[in-house]
Amino acid sequence: MGQGWNWSGFADYLFNPYILSGALTTLWLTLAAIAGGMVVGGALALARLSGRKWLAIPAHFYIWVFRGTPLLVQLIIIFTGLPQLGLKLSVIESALLGLILNEAAYLAEIVRGGIQSVPAGQTAAAKAMGFSNAQTMRYIVVPQAMRLIIPTLGNSINGLLKTTSVTSVISMEELLRRTQVLIQEKFMVLELFAVAAIYYLLMTTVWDLIQRRIEQHYGRAYGHGSAPTKVADPALEQR
Amino acid sequence: MKLLPALGAATALFIFGLGTASAQACKSPVPDSALVKKGTLTMSVNPTLPPMQFVDQTGALKGMRVELGEAIAKRLCLTPEYVRIEFSAMIPGLQAGRWDVINTGIFYTEERAKMMQMLQYENQAISISTTKGNPLKIAKPDDLSGKSIGVEIGGFEERKARELDKQLTDKGMKGMTIRTFENFAMAFQALRAGQVEVALSIDSTATEYQKRGDFDRVLSGLFPTPVAIASRNKELADAMAKVLNDMKADGSFQKLFDQYGVKPIDGAVTVKGPAAG
Fold this sequence. Notes:
By secondary structure, chain A is mainly α. Helices cover about 75% and strands about 0% of the residues of chain A. Chain A has nine helices and no strands. In chain A, α2 packs across α5 (about 90-115), α2 (about 15-50) crosses α9 (about 190-220) and α8 packs antiparallel against α9. Chain A starts with 6 loop residues before the first helix and ends in a 21-residue tail after the last helix. In chain B, a hairpin with a 5-residue loop joins β2 (about 55) and β3 (about 60). The radius of gyration of chain B is 22 Å and the shape is elongated. Chain B is about 40% helix and about 25% strand. Chain B folds into two domains: about 30-125 and about 225-270, D-Maltodextrin-Binding Protein, domain 2; about 125-225, Periplasmic binding protein-like II (D-Maltodextrin-Binding Protein, domain 2, 3-Layer(aba) Sandwich).
């Protein structure tokens, strides 16, 4: 009983405002999760790298828990489990909180990796020149770490755009959920999910282009905007 | 003649003979071509609606629909096999030939009857449940105005939730906030957590939850509609109709329904669906 492909149905769904608004929801969820995730993740990374045990250990614990459990489980716990303990968050609050807390753990590791990969010689030279710890971070380490952080961070953002679909489990009305709701109309499953796929592809592709520009910006000291191949000044390199 | 090969041949003939004898004792009226898997009645079910279809603590499938499915399969000389899946995937799956039958109490609608063979066998209706004690004092459909309602996505129930919402807005009242979940279990979980104020499901389930003391059934009997068992293949549907009518005739049908407190459909079970299939 194959229905075949319905071009007019596909075209209708492609410009369907119900689905379009779902796509916009996916977009702002991603942006909010990234913004929040970077703030929390950046702080976590610094805490993790800190010499102070009272910062480093809780940060490590947080990262371990939130990277070690599925986002789906985290969302369900926040949405239907926390109310048992007296904390009831709305659908949007739960979705954002889950996404931010989860993403922060991954971003913390990405930032930490980037920072630790800047050669120790750079920090030593900065200290020798009288930079404070904060100044070293800001002017020497982080700008160089960004070249390593950006591609992985960009990859994470690309993933997050699609991971937002998991929030449909707690009834969040994003792209996937909106697509599912429309199946009941005429059962054009293939056409509907093709439309959803196109929207996801559109968003991830736009992000890819933005990411390329950012990479070029941070890679301008090295001649081209791709992953680093050698340290800027061999004289400062330490083995 | 050597003894061993002779004994071997005799044993083989004996077992083969036994095999064909038992097959002759129960030969399925349904041809293999009508089935997704030979000798098997593959049924899709969404076990999140006690007492009609649910899982117990060991994860075993239980409920009236499961028992009915087993009875039908037995009478058709087929092995019952269940595919547990969300309702929203069932109709596309049936059309794609992933299972023979949707045995999840699918509501009968004319629209659905154009896509599959439907055998109406039970009378159901929509119910609204709240947390214990009915704190919001819901007594009539108008009381649902401005409330958040949890429902399973993709089914008759979701459609009725939207209809209820429209009824309210048509009267100039505030509508409901409809929250869709993967299945009823999640919707009721959201109700328990206070994330939605009411949950919409079927009469039998709302009654069961009330009986268990989990949730209160505050409205019931809304949109009374028969539920059906559905198949893609017409030969299978005709065979199932015969089985169900046999069960009606010998009283086992009524017995099953009484056990679960559900209302069977009046009259004979007929097949409604597209002419060829």
